[in-house]
């Protein structure tokens, strides 16, 4: 199993259809990943941002980003979530 880069590590790691999901990634982003099927390792939300799925109310969300992890270890922003 290919692991995410160290700076993308969070509290939970999962696998779905060959992709790694690291941290509190919103379901909508996972669905988009599975629909688009990019050549990538998976998605990550580093740390545990307040208001991300499972981390407190979305109405009090702090801003965070979901990153796409490429096979070469590089990352790019896949989705942005602004503060509530």
Please tell me about this protein's structure.
The structure is a single chain. The protein is mainly beta and 84 residues long. It has one domain (6-81). It is 12% helix and 32% strand. A hairpin with a 2-residue loop joins strand 1 (13-16) and strand 2 (19-22). The protein is globular, with a radius of gyration of 12 Å. The N and C termini lie far apart (35 Å).
Keywords for this entry:
5 strands, mainly beta, 84 residues
Reconstruct the topology from this structure.
Elements: E1 13-16, E2 19-22, H1 27-36, E3 40-44, E4 64-70, E5 75-81
Parallel strand pairs: 2-3
Antiparallel strand pairs: 1-2, 3-4, 4-5
Determine the fraction of residues in helical runs and give it as a percent range.
10-25%
C-alpha geometry? globular
- Whole-angstrom Rg: 12 Å
Number of strands: 5
Question: What is the tally of helical segments?
Answer: 1
Q: Look at the helices and sheets and give the structural class.
A: mainly beta
- Low-confidence sequence ranges: none
Q: How are the strands of the biggest sheet laid out side by side?
A: 1-2-3-4-5
Taking all residues together, what is the mean pLDDT? 89
- Main sheet specs: 5 strands, mixed
Distance between the termini: 35 Å
Domain module count: 1
Strand share of the residues? 25-35%
